[in-house]
């Protein structure tokens, strides 16, 4: 996808602004109550540029205040291969005394250079709040004088809002992405003259820096596009896959196909099921063991902080499971929730000095928490609560001793248990813990150090275990941002798991999230009872599937008459088309939650001259035919189309497929179709 001259011009202009060549950096804050822009005239400015590598030039622009010796460093990456710039800001106290108060620190505070008369729309997606609405696109029109402020709430970066924004201004625009796995905030405002200003950074900062101290801001990305908004989304997808993609053992991550299992299941059952998987050659790459394998009997949430392997379930630990997986060429995915520490657990007793507490006025009891509810009612309530749990404390990753302890602990478990994928959950809203710990002149400091610690934890685990991958689960999809996705992948993108026959929520989640984040996953459910339509409703770059069970309860051995052949057929079909999710994405129908609709999308790989069309006809749809106009094809090329259900083939020109459309007929409801195409 080549850059247009205008896109290159926008990139060059913003690179110049990041260097401060116009006299003012793009960041903003107050120092001792005075806006930094008013103080910069007497500051020393230095600029350094490293040689370009892999299409990226790294540049650092440094400002030093002669009076306070506060240094401000803008660390930028200017991309040659994409119309994109990204940066973060570091503040360092190089003086002998505390700095004046630094307030409202923003990594970006600037005006976008677009025609003031252009209509302006800000497009973004909802976050992972455990609803059918998760990741749905939202579009807000900004008229002169209008303002839009967004933030995730609770301290997890994609809880209520996903931190990716497409600012659409007529036939061009820019995508802003925020990299901060905490409480960021972004604000878009139009002046009465039509100009558009943008601010982005942490939600709250008001702090002093002691001598020698430094802090960083969120990382920001601006990616420029021209044409249709979907071009901007596909430029973003390609950019993230190239520059913000985990690389286990130095190779770009292919998001895995996993077999999901509940941790409260005896090891003997796991081992028996693993034998069945190997005997029937089911192509799972990871064996997923979720919560409840640790602590003791009772609800697993009450045992976070006691990471003793349950002897009643795993009398020999995980070694037998590790050894069997290695013998069959598969790997273990194991669930942890190391940040949340429940009361009366070993970590709560032995490491109290490392734990953060919630404000006393927010304290609740386990009775308030809802264990008296029926299971289905509890599940709905549990997913929507603010997640300040009774008596829970937060392991402070900003404490160097706590971080060192946790890193060593997890590293040892990864080694001894043979963990190929470390699954980090976080069922706790950290923001109130951080803010309760801040002193009046250090507001924001606990959060900054905590987020720095989270990145250091992931980076060190990946460095010690080069083949490791990390599954980023925070109550399902609440920590997805520019910084996290390069280290950890959301294999469980939302806790809204409705395994009913309509699968509308799964389809809607895919439709929205693929605009922004190429690598993500969900569950297909249980393969002994899922239809082809239900299975295809869950397709994504990563996929989890169960063989036998009923949710988060102890599993039984797989019966002898299990339909292994059908399970293998479904999994092999998925693996045959998984690569398509690394291509460009085009929604072919409108977003809708209606049960009488069709939903379809296209994944196109122009470099391979092929692609995939996924068509899903919902249970109450009365329509038997559809015509879908494809995108991104070569008008002068002939394409061979193959129906993966019937094996039927036909040939059409790219211009016909983009103008007249792909015609399909599905008589039954619900129904689905997968159409592969390649140049003839």
Explain what this protein looks like in three dimensions.
- The protein is an alpha+beta fold.
- The protein folds into three domains: 5-243, Beta-galactosidase, Chain A, domain 5 (Distorted Sandwich); 250-340 and 400-430 and 469-580, TIM Barrel (Alpha-Beta Barrel), CATH 3.20.20; 583-679, Immunoglobulin-like (Sandwich).
- Helices cover 22% and strands 30% of the residues.
- The chain is built from 14 helices and 36 strands.
- Strands 3, 4, 5, 6, 8, 9, 11, 12, 16 and 17 form a ten-stranded antiparallel beta sheet that branches. Strands 1, 2, 7, 10, 13, 14, 15 and 25 form an eight-stranded antiparallel beta sheet that branches. A seven-stranded parallel beta sheet has the order 26-24-20-19-18-28-27.
- β1 and β2 form a beta hairpin.
- α3 (267-279) packs parallel to α4 (319-327), α8 runs parallel beside α10 and α9 crosses α10 (445-464).
- The protein is globular and about 80 Å long.
- Residues 364-386 have low confidence and may be disordered.
Which descriptors would you attach to this protein?
single chain; 680 residues; alpha+beta; Beta-galactosidase, Chain A, domain 5; TIM Barrel; Immunoglobulin-like; 3 domains; ten-stranded antiparallel β-sheet; eight-stranded antiparallel β-sheet
Topology:
Elements (H helix, E strand, L loop, with lengths): L4 H14 L9 E4 L2 E2 L8 E6 L6 E9 L5 E10 L4 E10 L8 E11 L7 E6 L11 E6 L4 E4 L13 E6 L2 E8 L4 E7 L5 E7 L3 E2 L6 E3 L2 E8 L2 H15 L13 E5 L5 H13 L6 E4 L29 H9 L3 E6 L3 E2 L4 H5 L4 E2 L9 H4 L5 H10 L8 E3 L4 H18 L1 E6 L6 H7 L4 E2 L1 H20 L4 E4 L31 H10 L7 E6 L5 H6 L4 E5 L17 H14 L6 E4 L10 E8 L4 E8 L7 E4 L9 E6 L5 E5 H6 L2 E4 L5 E9 L1
Parallel strand pairs: 18-19, 18-28, 19-20, 20-24, 24-26, 27-28
Antiparallel strand pairs: 1-2, 1-7, 3-4, 4-5, 5-6, 6-16, 6-17, 7-14, 7-15, 8-9, 8-11, 10-13, 11-12, 12-17, 13-14, 15-25, 21-23, 22-23, 29-30, 30-31, 31-36, 32-35, 33-34, 33-36
């Amino acid at each position: 996808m080549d850059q247009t001259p205008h896109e290159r011009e926008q990139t060059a202009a913003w690179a110049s602004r990041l260097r401060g060549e116009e006299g003012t950096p793009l960041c903003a804050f107050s120092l001792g109550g005075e806006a930094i822009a008013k103080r910069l005239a007497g500051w020393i400015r230095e600029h350094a540029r490293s040689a370009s590598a892999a299409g990226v030039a790294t540049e650092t622009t440094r400002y030093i205040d002669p009076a306070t010796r506060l240094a401000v460093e803008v660390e930028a990456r200017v991309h040659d291969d994409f119309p994109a710039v990204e940066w973060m800001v570091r503040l360092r106290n190089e003086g002998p005394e505390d700095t004046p108060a630094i307030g409202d620190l923003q990594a970006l505070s600037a005006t976008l250079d677009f025609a003031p008369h252009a209509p302006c729309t800000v497009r973004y997606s909802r976050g992972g709040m455990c609803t059918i609405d998760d990741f749905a696109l939202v579009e807000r029109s900004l008229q002169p004088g209008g303002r839009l402020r967004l933030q995730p709430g609770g301290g997890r970066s994609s809880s209520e809002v996903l931190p990716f924004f497409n600012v659409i201004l007529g036939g061009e625009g820019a995508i802003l992405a925020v990299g901060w796995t905490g409480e960021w905030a972004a604000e878009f405002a139009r002046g009465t003259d039509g100009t558009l200003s943008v601010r982005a950074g942490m939600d709250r900062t008001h702090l002093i820096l002691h001598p020698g101290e430094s802090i960083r801001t969120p990382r920001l990305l601006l990616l420029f596009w021209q044409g249709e908004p979907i071009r901007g989304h596909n430029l973003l997808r390609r950019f993230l896959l190239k520059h913000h993609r985990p690389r286990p053992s130095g190779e770009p991550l292919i998001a895995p196909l996993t077999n999901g299992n509940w941790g409260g299941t005896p090891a003997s059952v796991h081992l028996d099921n693993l034998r069945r998987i190997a005997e029937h050659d089911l192509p799972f790459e990871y064996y997923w063991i979720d919560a409840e394998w640790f602590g003791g009997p009772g609800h697993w949430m009450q045992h976070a902080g006691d990471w003793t392997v349950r002897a009643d379930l795993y009398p020999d630990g995980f070694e037998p499971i590790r050894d069997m997986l290695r013998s069959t060429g598969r790997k273990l995915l194991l669930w942890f929730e190391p940040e949340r520490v429940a009361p009366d657990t070993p970590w709560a007793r032995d490491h109290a000095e490392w734990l953060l507490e919630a404000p006393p006025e927010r304290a609740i009891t386990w009775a308030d928490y809802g264990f008296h509810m029926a299971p289905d009612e509890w599940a709905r309530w549990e997913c929507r609560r603010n997640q300040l749990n009774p008596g829970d404390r937060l392991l402070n990753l900003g404490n160097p001793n706590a971080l060192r302890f946790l890193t060593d602990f997890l590293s040892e478990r990864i080694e001894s248990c043979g963990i190929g994928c470390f699954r980090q959950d976080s069922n706790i809203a950290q923001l109130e813990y951080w803010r309760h710990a801040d002193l009046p002149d250090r507001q924001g400091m606990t959060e900054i150090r905590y987020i720095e610690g989270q990145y250091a934890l992931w980076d060190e685990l990946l460095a010690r275990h080069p083949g490791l991958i990390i599954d980023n689960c925070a109550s399902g999809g609440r920590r997805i941002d520019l910084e996290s996705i390069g280290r950890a992948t959301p294999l469980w993108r939302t806790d809204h798991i409705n395994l009913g026959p309509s699968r509308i929520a799964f389809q809607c989640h895919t439709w929205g999230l693929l605009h922004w984040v190429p690598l993500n996953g969900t569950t297909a459910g249980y393969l002994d009872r899922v239809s082809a339509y239900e299975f295809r409703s869950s397709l994504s770059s990563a996929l989890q599937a169960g063989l036998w069970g009923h949710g988060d309860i102890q599993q039984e051995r797989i019966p002898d008459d299990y339909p292994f052949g059908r399970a293998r057929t479904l999994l092999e079909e998925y693996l045959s088309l998984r690569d398509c999710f690394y291509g460009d994405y085009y929604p072919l129908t409108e977003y809708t939650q209606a049960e009488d609709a069709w939903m379809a999308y296209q994944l196109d790989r122009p470099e391979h001259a092929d692609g995939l069309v996924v068509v899903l006809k919902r249970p109450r749809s009365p329509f038997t035919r559809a015509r879908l106009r494809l995108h991104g094809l070569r008008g002068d090329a002939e394409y061979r189309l193959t129906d993966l259900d019937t094996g039927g083939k036909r040939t059409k020109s790219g211009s016909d497929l983009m103008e007249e459309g792909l015609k399909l007929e599905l008589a039954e409801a619900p129904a689905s179709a997968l159409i592969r195409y390649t140049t003839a």
